[in-house]
Amino acid sequence: MCPIPELRQQFPILTSKNEEPFIYLDSGATSQKPQQVIEAIDSFYREQNANVHRGLHTLSAQATSAFEQAREKVAKFLNVQSNEIVWTSGATDSINIIANGIKAQLSQGDVICVSALEHHANIVPWQEICKEKGCILKVLPITKSGILDLKSSVELIFEQKPKIVAISHASNALGNIQPVEKIIEAAHKVTATTVVDGAQAFMHLRPDLRKLDCDFYVFSAHKALGPTGLGVLYGKYDQLNALNPLRFGGEMIKEVSFEMTSFQDAPSKFEAGTPNISAVIGFSAALDFLNSIDYKELQQYEQGLYDCLLTQLRSINGIIIYGDTENNIGTVSFRYKNEHHFDLATFLNGYGIAIRSGHHCTQPLMKALDIDGTIRVSLAFYNNHDDIDAFIQALKESIDLLEI
């Protein structure tokens, strides 16, 4: 296997000879893509372009085979069955499919729980279902530093007996690895359906969903070396197949007449129309790339980068770090004194440092922390210690400029 630091050479955007410096520390927004993913997409359009499941000709058969093999790769990666994997347009789309599909099983007064750390995509769909069905949204609480209060959250679940518990595996804003196993265990004791947003966790944690035992799990390909516009929805088969479909059209139907229509079983019933075939082919290559890396080595390497970043940030007077720094996927969310995060991010961009500033689509979390946003640095295995050193130097110089 290739040593982790050498994998960086396989990412064209990180190794191109640009005149301007470029340090990419925004993998929480989207990951960069290795050469083999780019080539897989290019090769599909050059040599194999055809629709899937719709033709008897050779190109269609080849495309269909590659498309379904990718589904099997995802299932194997997650330790589930391939008929439990649905292709979607992203984690947001996946959550909306679940929320729309399960609402027929809900009644007025039913409780839905989300955590205070959730991305808007795991809040708003449930809010809309609550408005439509007369359900009640309850929030699993966090501590003042932005960590899930596990004891109080479990007590709330036992007290409220929700029908649905939706929680992120890792916080996109703070990087916290959530104690989802204990939340899922508590939820199942009150027969709640569990929905886990794995958008940030999939690449870093490689979840075993049989072991995790969640009912639904979602993520986006683009945060795991794959293309944009593609996501995955996993569901335990009986519960997945019980969902009503969100979209209707070709491919997902069994039979159509002007009197009635019947639908195929999952996963086909959720994949109306022509899918994002090239993205699936690209993500298949991304999974091959991830499977070629020793998982323990990857985690150790990312942890080393994260520890180095934390140490250097903590040496700067005035830096305030939020979230769980003991259990983290490699994301640091911080502020400098009372300076506005946007100003600091603008200065950093002038040094070629790509980071994220703002509320990170977690406005309720920012309100709970009594701030309007943070600077977010999100690492991946293709970063190195030179990236961190360059960032810290640029940060110190940017702070000096702010203080003039």
Automatic annotation (TrEMBL):
It is an enzyme of class 2 (transferase). It comes from the Bacteria. PROSITE patterns: AA_TRANSFER_CLASS_5. Its cofactor is pyridoxal 5'-phosphate. Residues 23-391 form the Aminotransferase class V domain. GO terms for biological process: cysteine metabolic process. The keyword Nucleus does not apply. It catalyses: (sulfur carrier)-H + L-cysteine = (sulfur carrier)-SH + L-alanine. Pfam families: Aminotran_5. One of its GO terms (molecular function) is cysteine desulfurase activity. Keywords: Pyridoxal phosphate, Transferase. Its EC number is 2.8.1.7. NCBIfam families: sufS. Belongs to the class-V pyridoxal-phosphate-dependent aminotransferase family. Csd subfamily. Catalyzes the removal of elemental sulfur and selenium atoms from L-cysteine, L-cystine, L-selenocysteine, and L-selenocystine to produce L-alanine. This is Cysteine desulfurase. It comes from Pseudoalteromonas phenolica.
